[in-house]
């Protein structure tokens, strides 16, 4: 049960300063547009918070491209909008100096790298499928499938509208271990360099019933490696942090722990 | 006689020809499909990932893919399309792939346990056609009822 409400609140309120600039090759107008500055929530997804960014830059691009899908890049790397914003930041953290400089594009959508995102329904569908997968891992999918559609909607609306209480009124049910003391498996993803993210089946307790820690998880996923650093929400949690607690308190709204791995 | 011929050839060609289909432009549109079957560890089921490109190299849109899938599944798929078939990141290749969501697969496979000696083939032959993948009949020959 996610009891430490202070921690939940702090995590929820994490923000990042971003400086959006239009790709100079796409500037159609005589005058280059001003950069657009925005504080973005770590827990959200770029398509949910960049409507104003789009509006701001649309008038400076080719008038025939007004319906084009916007996409973002950092340092030449297209940003995967389906990763929460905070995850993207932590992945590139060593290359970022605040404010985070992101380039806005409307042309040459990189179809072989980015999922299309023509509407909020796409984001909702992705978000809900992560929640369901996390539920399968934690509870054999018994909690989400027993929820009504209105509860699913409340999770989505709570995230979209930045409403902590609305979101957690439903999410606390997903954070309960339902009968057992702990989740069956811990939903997590590890990101390292350019490769695919790593996801394994990891239990929160040993076979003898002892609580496992972050250290156990990393040893299982990256055996025989020393000198690794784990970052999430911009911090490095202590190695002794119990996995069950970590999952209940430091998961993103999609109910997954997203851990960025760096070597010293 | 000469003037008659001239008259005929002054008419527009499409009224002159009886068989107008000769005037139609036929452009053959080729779509290339790529399929991957992966094991989804979280759901403990197989999942089907695929992409489809037109001959100019452009990826089929989600709407176009749904349009083709819906031909097999009138009614029920329409309501659920957002939870059944969307673009996702391929777990190994990291590229976008259209993916049949695994949530229903577990139920479906459970119901097959006593009835098929190769549930993977039964699963693929059921869901494959929805996304244009037709298995050769030879695969079917290898699947016998488990209760023989």
UniProtKB/TrEMBL annotation, chain A:
This is Autophagy protein 5. Keywords: Acetylation, Apoptosis, Autophagy, Cytoplasm, Immunity, Isopeptide bond, Membrane, Ubl conjugation. GO terms for biological process: apoptotic process; autophagosome assembly; autophagy of mitochondrion; cellular response to nitrogen starvation; immune system process; negative regulation of programmed cell death; piecemeal microautophagy of the nucleus. InterPro entries: Atg5, ATG5_HBR, Atg5_HR, ATG5_UblA, Atg5_UblA_dom_sf, ATG5_UblB. Residues 121-176 form the Autophagy protein ATG5 alpha-helical bundle region domain. Coiled coil: none annotated. It comes from Diploptera punctata (Pacific beetle cockroach). May play an important role in the apoptotic process, possibly within the modified cytoskeleton. Its expression is a relatively late event in the apoptotic process, occurring downstream of caspase activity. Plays a crucial role in IFN-gamma-induced autophagic cell death by interacting with FADD. Involved in autophagic vesicle formation. GO terms for cellular component: Atg12-Atg5-Atg16 complex; autophagosome; mitochondria-associated endoplasmic reticulum membrane contact site; phagophore; phagophore assembly site membrane. GO terms for molecular function: Atg8-family ligase activity. Belongs to the ATG5 family. Its main location: cytoplasm. It is a peripheral membrane protein. Residues 11-106 form the Autophagy protein ATG5 UblA domain. It holds the Pfam family ATG5_UblB. Forms a conjugate with ATG12. Part of the minor complex composed of 4 sets of ATG12-ATG5 and ATG16L1 (400 kDa); this complex interacts with ATG3 leading to disruption of ATG7 interaction and promotion of ATG8-like proteins lipidation. Forms an 800-kDa complex composed of ATG12-ATG5 and ATG16L2. The ATG12-ATG5 conjugate interacts with RAB33A; this interaction is bridged by ATG16L1 and promotes ATG12-ATG5-ATG16L1 complex recruitment to phagophores. Interacts with TECPR1; the interaction is direct and does not take place when ATG16L1 is associated with the ATG5-ATG12 conjugate. Residues 185-261 form the Autophagy protein ATG5 UblB domain. It is found in: Cytoplasm; Preautophagosomal structure membrane.
From TrEMBL, chain B:
One of its GO terms (biological process) is autophagy of mitochondrion. Coiled coil: none annotated. One of its GO terms (cellular component) is cytosol. It holds the Pfam family Autophagy_act_C. Keywords: Autophagy, Transferase, Ubl conjugation pathway. GO terms for molecular function: Atg12 conjugating enzyme activity. InterPro entries: Atg3/Atg10. PANTHER family: UBIQUITIN-LIKE-CONJUGATING ENZYME ATG10 (PTHR14957:SF1). Belongs to the ATG10 family. This is Ubiquitin-like-conjugating enzyme ATG10.
